[in-house]
Each structure stands twice: as C-alpha cells, then as structure tokens.
Amino acid sequence: MTDAVSQHTIMFRGTSGQSSMGRVNIKALSIRARSWRAIVRGAAGVIVTTFLALIPALHFVLVPIGLVLTALMVLSAFRSRTHLLGGSGPCPYCNHTITIFPRRATFPFHDVCEQCRRQVTVESSV
Ligand SMILES: [Zn+2]
Description:
By secondary structure, the protein is α+β, with helices and mostly antiparallel strands.
C-alpha cells in the first residue's frame, strides 16, 4: 500500500485576530511506513544509549533515561498516522510567504514569519 498525500487548507492566525489562509500537504502513513519509522528511531536511540554507557559514573543514570526515551520515541513514531510534508501561506501581518517545514501533523502549532518575526498560530481549517 502506498502512502497517500493530500492537500489541506490551513489558517494562519495572528494574536490580534488577523488571519490568512494557506495550504499544506499531509501524508497518511501506512502501517509499513509507521513500522519503518519506529525501527529507525529505535535504532538511533539504542546507538545513542550505547554511547551514553561509556560515560563513567553517569551511565547509571543516563542509560535508563536513554532506554525510556528510546521506547517513547518508538511509540510516538508508530502512533503518528500522518506526517505534514510542508506548505505555505501569506503572513496575516505583512503578507510575506510563510513556509511550513516537514513536521508532525498536529494542529494547532506556532510558527514565526521570517519577514516580520511575529509569531502566528497555524490551525487546520477542517
Ligand atoms: Zn510577517
């Protein structure tokens, strides 16, 4: 099964009620893609935890923390069913294009306009 990409309309909202509309691409992850992402994150966590085991004395604390964080990263990667691939839209303050970079597809989230440096809230308009 291939992962389906769909376009969604989003709303950029300023702190004083200004708003503008934009678009993002969201990828629905198949069970295979979610499993692969979980395996990659788990492997990265185990590698980092292995290096933490080399630190004298602190490894008694750092290794358990690393293992717990690895387990949380694996669960998080497996549970996220969608991934935001990116998008853009006009800033509600200065109308400059705000580019949204790939990230977890959870709404709302905050972003900063590169032109005017003001924070905007990005909401799904669905
Ligand atoms: Zn702006």
